[in-house]
Design a protein that fits this description.
The chain is of the alpha+beta class. The chain is 41% helix and 24% strand. Helix 3 runs antiparallel to helix 4, helix 5 (202-215) crosses helix 6 and helix 8 (264-276) packs across helix 9 (300-306). Bound molecules: adenosine-5'-diphosphate (ADP), (3R)-3-hydroxy-3-methyl-5-(phosphonooxy)pentanoic acid and magnesium ion (MG).
């Protein structure tokens, strides 16, 4: 049996534009997905994901071609969920050269699902790490990140960046531009996360931005402008200029909003944070619903978000410095 965990993340800047080659700076946060894997005697896959729905579910099946998996929830939820887990297991089988290996998989996570905090990347990174270790293979971090990226790329219909998976693997703050990935120095920023209790469909939102880009030159310009914000943000990060980081986060949110990926609840939380005195606030991740991230050293933003009707949960998120971790 092998257990591995990997962190979620917030985007300081650059989501969506990073899919088209602009730079992005995600930061790993101290919220983790933990995956335990035990090899089976047969070639089946049994997945327990207690956090996936209110009641959790268990599914036992023999792969994507299995017409009759034994499940206790709706097929659409299972299909949506199994994409990442199934493809991660395929990567582990490939890495260990064990195409017929079967596994019992248990997933536990304290990262809200589909909310822009990178739960998919964390599950995939921890899943590949646990499954390869169970098969006696130790991947380098860069190979693990690359294999995890391939999973997100496949499940998100060929539209994914390396940002989430690289960040979840390495921990800390990272800079990703195309296939150039590096960890960067960052001060311990006072992240406050507001969560509307909802979710957005990453694949759909990415496809929406792509369609806009294909229709309007100014949508294309907007994506490039996000890249400019990120480049400016890197200077602010280097200088430790938190006020400037905040202004740039605000600008970044406006550009994401122009690309159609914000939501009323996200805007309400962003404005709740700004009016409380946050130095900056923006949606994080794919958008459509889920989380915003604000910078505030004081308790004012947390307090304001607690009383914002669209906000279901608010918490402080500290920068994670470990990345993927073998637990047992
Ligand atoms: N605890 C979990 N157990 C099983 N699958 C999970 C879990 N958390 C996330 N996932 C997978 O990741 C998907 C959400 O990923 P995504 O839409 O990219 O949003 P995000 O990465 O922002 O959380 C879920 O639909 C599910 O397939
Ligand atoms: C929108 C995007 O830039 C980030 C998606 O992040 P999340 O899955 O919503 O946490 C897509 C990607 O980079 O693959
Ligand atoms: Mg994701």
């Amino acid at each position: 049996m092998a257990t591995a965990s990997a962190p979620g993340k917030v985007y300081l800047f650059g989501e969506h534009a990073v899919v088209y080659g602009e730079p992005a700076v995600p930061c790993a946060i101290e919220r983790r997905a933990t995956v335990t894997v035990e090899e089976r005697a047969d070639d089946k896959l049994r997945v327990e994901a207690e956090d996936l729905s209110l009641d959790g579910f268990t599914v036992e099946y023999s792969g994507p071609t299995d017409a009759n998996p034994a499940v206790d929830v709706s097929e659409s939820l299972v299909n949506a969920a199994m994409g990442y887990v199934d493809t991660a297991v395929e990567e582990a089988r490939d890495a260990a050269d064990r195409p017929d290996a079967g596994f019992d998989v248990i997933i536990e996570s304290d990262i809200p699902l589909g909310a822009g905090l990178g739960s998919s990347a964390a599950v995939v990174v921890a899943g590949i790490e646990a499954a390869t270790r169970e098969l006696g293979v130790e991947l380098s971090r860069s190979e693990l990140a690359e294999r995890a990226y391939r999973v997100e790329h496949e499940v998100q219909d060929g539209q994914a960046s390396r940002a989430d998976t690289y960040c979840s693997t390495m921990g800390g703050a990272v800079r990703v531009e195309g296939d150039q990935c590096e960890t960067i120095d960052a001060p311990d920023l006072p992240f406050v996360v507001g969560y509307d209790g909802g979710a957005g469909d990453t694949g759909e939102l990415v496809a929406g931005v792509r369609a806009l880009k294909g229709t309007y030159d100014f949508a294309d310009d907007t994506v490039r402008a996000i890249g400019d914000v990120v480049r400016q943000g890197e200077d602010a990060l280097e200088a430790g200029d938190v006020e400037e980081l905040g202004r740039l986060m605000d600008f970044n949110h406006g550009l994401l909003s122009a690309l159609g990926v914000s939501a009323r609840s996200l805007d309400a939380m962003v404005w709740g944070a700004r009016e409380a005195g946050a130095v900056g606030a923006k949606l994080t991740g794919a958008g459509g619903g889920g989380c915003i991230v604000a910078l505030d050293e004081t308790d004012a933003t947390e307090t304001a978000l607690k009383y914002t009707p669209d906000c279901e949960q608010v918490f402080r998120a500290r920068l994670d410095s470990d990345g993927v971790r073998l637990e047992r």
